[in-house]
Amino acid sequence: MKILILGAGQVGGTLAENLANEANDITIIDSDGARLRELQDRLDIRTVQGKASYPTVLRQAGAADADMLIAVTSSDETNMVACQIASILFKTPTKISRVRASAYLARNELFGENGFPIDVMISPEHLVTRHITRLIEYPGALQVLEFSKGLARLVAIRATEGGPLVGHELSYLRSHMPRIDTRVAAIFRKDRAIMPQGDTVIEDGDEVFFIAGTDHIRSVMSELQPLVKNYKRIFICGGGNIGQRLAHTLENRYQVKLLERDHERCVMLSENLRKTVVLEGNAANKDILLEENIENTDVFCAVTNDDEANIMASLLAKRLGARKVFTLINNPDYVDLIQGGDIDVAISPQQTTIGSLLTHVRRGDVVNVHSLRRGAAEAIEAIAHGDHRSSKVVGKRLDEIPLPEGTTIGAIVRHNEVLIAHDHVRIQPDDHVILFLVDKTRVRDVEKLFQVGLTFF
């Protein structure tokens, strides 16, 4: 595919890296020449310096024959106008735009038939809020990913001594929980991927990815670590777009406190949030946290737009007794450094957003893509089309499908029913197949499996 990426920031750069590795023709536009040179030195891409919404710049970048335009500059207005220009002047088939401001997102008519011609809108704040909310719903999880409108979920969890399955072979799970069907898709041990077999022994500290129907997630989690009590008290540090959204999403089910240092923003938040207790102050102030009984807090979420402030506030909250600490980190280099110590979960907006963007770039009928382990692994939901003559997967038993190395099928969703992957299951037309790739470089091979041959037409 020929893809134009507007904006070479964290999201644009990470996206270019992901797509360039998959043999796409990538051109990236940005006004920052130094950043473009740095990307060009590392990646096999074209770069164009200039303002991303200018027609002349878009033409120079090859908009006239681009298959897709992905606008992820730091300006909503630039992104929206660029999509409009690409549509009017260049008839670009697919236009994806990042839109962050709730003032725009609240008005659906802006993006309807007569509004901005954006095919897919990505809101990082919305995606990050959903990500954090799921972690709060499943205490102890490192990542919770949804497939088939929430019918199936893939969960990453740290195996901990005291979990019934820890120290046992995977096959023990079936005899211990005969009524619950689940599949372990991958295990990461000291950052090394292990393809799970029945005789694989789960060790303390393993990062385990398993897939199950939504109703069974908690039961499987309780096998891998001692059951964590449900969270009740949530403390949010930072009242920006993410903090406000998160408080709004959680306030009817949890006791929520939100700390914001800007006075005017505090007034606005207290007027717009119904049950959240809004506090004014700095989270790096130990006295404020002690005054608000931080030692009784179940989850402390630091979601300001300053990485260093988030890290320092999180470390302080943990030292003062907060049970779990979630920290928003924009700089991807920090994520690996801090997760797993005093900070329980580091949340990267880039990785959360990248999955959403990749869904629309994948070939074949791919309806969900989740980027895992900072982009090294991937989970994909693909729909099987065609029949036994035109498709490489339809009509075949799972053990007959030539999956690329490091790829497992975790589950199939058929007519709103979740079927956990076992060798004897046959794939039928329109099945939603959920795959886990330990090695992301095999994505193209997986896509080819799900592409329909010419006999289908």
UniProtKB/TrEMBL annotation:
Gene3D superfamilies: NAD(P)-binding Rossmann-like Domain, Regulator of K+ conductance, C-terminal domain. Signal peptide: none annotated. Residues 1-122, 231-347 form the RCK N-terminal domain. Residues 142-226, 367-452 form the RCK C-terminal domain. InterPro entries: K_uptake_TrkA, NAD(P)-bd_dom_sf, RCK_C, RCK_C_sf, RCK_N, Trk_Ktr_HKT_K-transport. Keywords: Ion transport, NAD, Potassium, Potassium transport, Transport. The keyword Transmembrane does not apply. The keyword NAD applies. NCBIfam families: PRK09496.1-1 (NF007030), PRK09496.1-2 (NF007031), PRK09496.1-4 (NF007032), PRK09496.3-2 (NF007039). PANTHER family: POTASSIUM CHANNEL PROTEIN 2-RELATED-RELATED, TRK SYSTEM POTASSIUM UPTAKE PROTEIN TRKA. This is Trk system potassium uptake protein TrkA. It comes from Marinobacter qingdaonensis.
